[in-house]
Amino acid sequence: MTEHAPVLPLWLCETCERPWPCVTRRAELLGEQDPVHLAYYLSLCLISAGQDMSWAPPDVLRRRFIGWLP
Ligand SMILES: [Zn+2]
């Protein structure tokens, strides 16, 4: 179980207090899941975060949740 889970509704890492997924969580996710499932999972997170942070520019959220994928 990760110590780098998101704290809602701001989606900040509970350990780093950085925007989730933080650098540590990104590395964990890449090691835990295959690329297709990871992209699907992060897409669901992106939709949920977009609802929680409706004030945030969609492009910024997209880069944060999806844009770092290899
Ligand atoms: Zn973290």
Could you walk me through the main structural features you see in this protein, from its secondary elements to its overall organization?
This protein has a domain at 19-65. Helices cover 51% and strands 6% of the residues. It is built from 3 helices and 2 strands, in the order E-E-H-H-H. It has helices at residues 23-32, 35-52, 58-65; strands spanning 6-7, 12-13. A two-stranded antiparallel sheet has the order 1-2. Strand 1 (6-7) and strand 2 form a beta hairpin. Helix 2 (35-52) packs antiparallel against helix 3. The longest helix has 18 residues, at 35-52. The structure holds zinc ion. Zinc ion binds at residues 4, 13, 15-16, 22, 24-25.
Care to give the gist of this entry?
The chain has a domain at 19-65. The protein contains three helices and two strands; from the N terminus they run E-E-H-H-H.
